[in-house]
Amino acid sequence: MSHKKKAITSMGALVGVQILNYILPLIAIPVIVRIIGPEKFGIINYVSSITSYLILLIGFSFELSASRVIAMNQDDHEKLNSIFNKVFFAKAFLFAASVVIYTAIFFSSETLQQDKPVAIFSFLICIAYIFDCNYLYLAKQDLKQTAMFNLITKVALNLCLLIFIREKGDYIYQPLIISLAQIVVGVGAFFWAIRRYTLSITFPGLKAVWDIIWRDKILFFHSFAHTVYTTLNIIMLGYFKGITEVGFYSAGWKLIILIQALLISPLGMVLFPIIGQAFGKSKEEGIAIVQKMLPVVFFSTLIIAVGILTVGGVFINIFYGAKFLESVVIFKILAFMPMMLALNMLFGIQTMVNLKMDKYFFSITLSAAFLNILLNLVLIHFWGSEGAAISWFITETYCAVAMYALIKRRKIELLNLKYFSFSIVKATLEPIVSKFKERIKKSAA
């Protein structure tokens, strides 16, 4: 299969499964949140925000760094097996560290002590990320099989949520079911990768494990700083204003994350190795792709923002119910957040990382994390959950502006107005759309 066809197949698999993955929660979540209410929804998201840092520690940005190395060495099987083992044992080591960290947090947090089952069940999801090897499938642009496996598991997950969560006290089962489903996906995809790419598990030695962790520290610190200003809002909101406020904020925040996962992440995941290879050929070729994608990202996210501002209130009421009407303002405050997230993906991951500007990328993200902490301390105090939403939006906007300005200072122009014409945007999208239509007709036949 050609490089272009593999990219289209990967994109089709990702988008198709992402759509189904997020259509299913559109059925399950509205039922569940009406049963458990804002407070229990808040505690689940509060603990989830804490475990997200441990997931990040275990993943250590290998999805970006390892996929980049593999994409540049597509035909080197020895290199592939070496990276696979280094990443796997590095994740195992980092998981052990996460157990120690979470144990300390668990015994020092009154909130976690009050909801021990939620705290324990939420942590189990970290086991799945020892086995996660999406970096390998991304680099190989071979996502169709794992996407289908993931879909089957998600169907079972959502059915279990609807079956087992029948009354308010059943809220403790949500993190347990989600963790078990993720473990099944992670372990299944891991052993599928071993079989598909004829890999073998061999311990590469402590030095090799430490070397890959040390090599990727900049990207990890960037991801850590980014997580600070996307999830610390929830932790600070819970600490200063209470778990119910977390529930209202999480309702609006979750919908934005849903939009990001459905529309932005699949595009970014598929584009990263493609743009990486383009930059590997020449800087000009990589920049040209980014320039063509910028208007597509801008106009698509602008439509999303208008939709949120227009019907956001109606959607919150239908999706979550009358108990969550306080989330309407939060959702509308975050209307342009998908645009900022997409631009940050394009300027940061797609451009700065591929141009080896990792340290500058990290510096911007680190400064954004500090900015977010300061904003939260002030805005949460005065406006609670709405203040947390404003803080997140200001921080993401700062990142987009700072990244673009820094890239431009390096005499690299990503904004090419000629690509903003309707005809060129249409021409950019037409090959992708036509390929999707062909695949749908073939599937139907």
For the secondary structure, the number of strands is 0
Cα(first) to Cα(last) distance is: 21 Å
Note the overall shape.
Answer: globular
Mean pLDDT: 84
Please give the share of residues in helix: over 70%
Rg to the nearest angstrom? 21 Å
Strand content: under 5%
The run of helices and strands is HHHHHHHHHHHHHHHHH
- Sheet with the most strands? none
Q: What is the number of domains? A: 2
Keywords: Cell membrane, Membrane, Transmembrane, Transmembrane helix
Main location: membrane
Transmembrane segments: 12-37, 43-66, 87-107, 119-138, 147-165, 171-194, 219-240, 252-275, 296-322, 328-348, 360-383, 389-407
Membrane topology: Multi-pass membrane protein
Walk me through the structure.
The structure is a single chain. With 445 residues, the chain is mainly alpha-helical. Helices cover 86% and strands 0% of the residues. It contains 17 helices and no strands. The chain has helices at 3-59, 62-72, 77-108, 110-114, 116-123, 125-131, 134-140, 144-164, 173-196, 206-215, 217-241, 243-281, 283-320, 327-333, 337-352, 358-409, 422-444. The longest helix has 57 residues, at 3-59. The two termini are 21 Å apart. It comes from Mucilaginibacter lutimaris. This is Oligosaccharide flippase family protein. Its main location: membrane.
